[in-house]
């Protein structure tokens, strides 16, 4: 390269870098003009890129938050447990959480409130899967085998353990190993594990790519219709911003109703905030989207956690739920 | 870079891709759903037209540049100070030697806990990681200053400040530049790692996480490919800058073009 050309290359490079850097700052949320007397009109809400929090995106797209005078900026989080420090230090106002993480945190003295329901298991939404030619034919055959879960000591191990119990085994009869969902298929194919606790869209993907078969639906028996995920905030946040919380709750409930009554709404939204394509979205098995937090249903999760030693003391779920939204 | 060198490099890269393509398509790993290099490259070519990805690249680059800049502003003065005052250096050395090898990725969870503002948290992590190479290189640069030159200046009645600005700093500058170049690579790794571990509104790491949500290994690899390209470009750019600014240094030390 000549000297002149090299100079041009540097100038070009710097310009590109600066232009790109400029793009990043364009995403600042605008404050809503209609405040409805809310204490806070712009909130940041943490969500995983999975089907569970679809209502957040539906409520945004349909203007349900706008109607309440609320501007909601979704932020990608990496897990329910990781979201707890984020709501505690205020980098998130509200976050997606799984109920097992929440109850564990509450048992450790964290001041967290559940503010809305999100996702509930349905048949075949969380399955134990094995390769097509696997010698494992029943859950009892898992004795001594390695089972992949997305997180240890979480809903995955809890649900699997409840199935092991039915088959006469205990948690210690299998070896749980942590692995992110996208990597489970390859890990099992390459012999790193014998089975995996898998959810959508990976159930469908592993069926079509590897010919995996279902060994067991983990959401049956004790765990039938098990509540999976909800929205949480700190106790402090919930008491400091009651009107903002109520506005969020109303908009989310409306979106949950829409999601549970029309699957097409979910299918249309999934490709927009996840990389699940439209074709996959139309065939995957989805859970339920309840529009109100029900203490009795959630109590089942806490009770199971106590039964399987995830909790040392019982938790009264009512005390973890924030006061219900005023109807509006 | 000469044309012949470029050609040889291109042949090497193409050869690797062909072998990888064959292994993945027909080889032992045929049962895995690892995307072929051709599929990854195809996605990589499409990505610059994806506004979501480009917004992410913008955010990652911004955090990276700011992090590197702040690290330089911290590490260079501290390095010069420690290099100029050897008793101070001896006092601080053990602490430096203890903190330096701590894997920077391991402090990300701590940073998430302590720093509520997303960008600030990520920039802090980048700063922590990139301070060390710059600081250590600055120190080496200060040690490498020709004592004879310093003595000459002193014997002509110049004060310590003049010795610092006229001899020590110019002499240490090439080392500082090398430190910044090494730190740039580390800073990029941390910029993407912080996004992978902590999430965020957007960013290359956030894009990779979201790509995983749809089982899109090809997209994950394509985004990672661009992170690699950005790292290479930064290195080339900084190396060219070093060569222009400090060509006298290269001639003095007899270092060859690398």
Rounded to the nearest angstrom, the radius of gyration of chain B is 22 Å
Structural class of chain A: alpha/beta
Distance between the termini of chain B: 10 Å
Q: CATH-wise, what's the superfamily of chain B?
A: MetI-like
Continuous helix count of chain A = 13
In the CATH scheme, the class of the largest domain in chain A would be Alpha Beta
- Count of beta strands of chain B: 0
The number of domains of chain B: 1
- Gyration radius of chain A, to the nearest Å? 22 Å
Q: What letter string, H or E per element, gives the SSE order of chain B?
A: HHHHHHHHHHH
- Helix residue percentage of chain B: over 70%
SS-derived structural category of chain B: mainly alpha
Our count of helices of chain B gives 11
Beta-strand percent range of chain A: 15-25%
Biggest beta-sheet profile of chain B: none
Any idea what the CATH architecture of the largest domain in chain A is?
3-Layer(aba) Sandwich
Note down, in words, how this protein is organized:
The complex is a heterodimer of chains A (328) and B (258). Chain A has helices at 3-24, 54-61, 64-67, 80-88, 99-107, 155-166, 181-189, 202-210, 235-240, 242-261, 263-273, 278-283, 295-307, and strands at 42-47, 71-76, 94-98, 112-120, 126-130, 146-149, 175-178, 195-199, 213-217, 227-234. Chain A has 328 residues and is of the alpha/beta class. Chain A folds into two domains: 18-120 and 226-295, Periplasmic binding protein-like II (D-Maltodextrin-Binding Protein, domain 2); 126-223, D-Maltodextrin-Binding Protein, domain 2, CATH 3.40.190.10. Chain A is globular, with a radius of gyration of 22 Å. The termini of chain A are far apart. Chain B is an all-alpha fold. Chain B has one domain (35-245): MetI-like fold. Chain B is 81% helix and 0% strand. Chain B is built from eleven helices and no strands. In chain B, helix 7 (147-155) packs across helix 8 and helix 8 (160-198) packs antiparallel against helix 10. Chain B is globular and about 75 Å long. The N and C termini of chain B lie close together (10 Å). Chains A and B meet through helix 1, strand 2, helix 4, helix 7 and helix 8 of A and helix 3, helix 5, helix 8, helix 9 and helix 10 of B.
């Amino acid at each position: 390269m000549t000297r002149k050309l090299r100079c041009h290359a540097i100038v070009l490079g710097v310009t590109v870098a600066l232009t790109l850097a400029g793009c990043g700052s364009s995403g600042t949320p605008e404050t809503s003009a209609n405040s409805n007397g809310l204490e806070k009109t712009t909130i940041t809400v943490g969500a995983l890129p999975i089907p569970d929090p679809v209502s957040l995106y539906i409520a945004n797209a349909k203007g349900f938050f706008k109607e309440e005078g609320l501007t909601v900026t979704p932020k990608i989080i990496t897990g329910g447990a990781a979201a707890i420090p984020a709501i505690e230090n205020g980098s998130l106002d509200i976050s997606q959480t799984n109920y097992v993480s929440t109850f564990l945190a509450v048992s450790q003295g964290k001041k967290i409130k559940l503010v809305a329901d999100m996702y509930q298991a349905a048949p075949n939404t969380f399955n134990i899967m094995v390769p097509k030619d696997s010698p494992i034919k029943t859950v009892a055959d898992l004795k001594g085998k390695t089972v992949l879960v997305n997180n240890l000591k979480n809903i995955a191990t809890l649900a699997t353990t409840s199935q092991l119990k039915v088959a006469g085994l205990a948690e210690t009869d299998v070896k749980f190993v942590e692995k992110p969902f996208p990597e489970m298929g390859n890990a099992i194919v390459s012999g790193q594990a014998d089975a995996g606790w898998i959810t959508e869209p990976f159930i469908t993907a592993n069926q079509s790519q590897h010919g995996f078969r279902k060994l067991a639906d983990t959401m049956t028996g004790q765990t039938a219709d098990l509540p999976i995920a909800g929205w949480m905030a700190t106790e402090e946040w919930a008491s400091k911003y009651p009107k903002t919380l109520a506005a969020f709750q109303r908009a989310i409930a409306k979106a949950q109703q829409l999601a549970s009554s029309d699957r097409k709404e979910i299918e249309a939204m999934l490709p927009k905030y996840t990389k699940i394509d439209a074709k996959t979205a139309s065939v995957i098995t989805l859970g339920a989207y309840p529009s109100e937090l029900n203490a009795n249903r959630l109590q089942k999760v806490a009770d199971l956690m106590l039964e399987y030693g995830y909790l040392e003391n019982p938790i009264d779920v009512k005390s973890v739920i924030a006061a219900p939204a005023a109807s509006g | 870079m000469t044309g012949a060198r470029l050609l040889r490099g291109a042949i090497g890269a193409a050869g690797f891709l062909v072998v990888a393509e064959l292994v993945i398509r027909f080889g032992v790993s045929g049962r895995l759903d690892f995307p072929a290099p051709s599929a990854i490259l195809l996605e990589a070519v499409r990505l610059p037209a994806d506004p979501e990805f480009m917004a992410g690249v913008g955010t990652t680059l911004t955090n990276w540049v700011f992090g590197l800049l702040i690290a330089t502003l911290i590490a260079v003065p501290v390095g010069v100070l420690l290099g100029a005052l050897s008793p101070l250096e001896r006092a601080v050395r053990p602490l430096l030697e203890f903190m330096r090898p701590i894997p920077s990725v391991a402090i990300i969870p701590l940073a998430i806990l302590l720093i509520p503002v997303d960008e600030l948290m990520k920039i802090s992590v980048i700063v922590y990681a990139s301070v060390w190479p710059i600081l250590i290189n600055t120190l080496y640069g200060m040690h490498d200053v020709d004592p004879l030159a310093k003595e000459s200046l002193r014997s002509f009645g110049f004060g310590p400040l003049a010795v610092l600005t006229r001899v020590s700093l110019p002499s240490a500058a090439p080392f500082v530049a090398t430190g910044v170049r090494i730190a740039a690579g580390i800073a990029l790794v941390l910029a993407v790692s912080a996004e992978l571990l902590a999430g965020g509104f957007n960013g290359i790491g956030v894009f990779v996480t979201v790509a995983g949500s749809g089982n899109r290994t090809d997209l994950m690899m394509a985004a990672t490919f661009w992170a690699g390209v950005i790292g290479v470009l930064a290195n080339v750019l900084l190396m060219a800058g070093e060569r222009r600014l400090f060509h006298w240094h290269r001639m003095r030390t007899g270092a060859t073009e690398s």
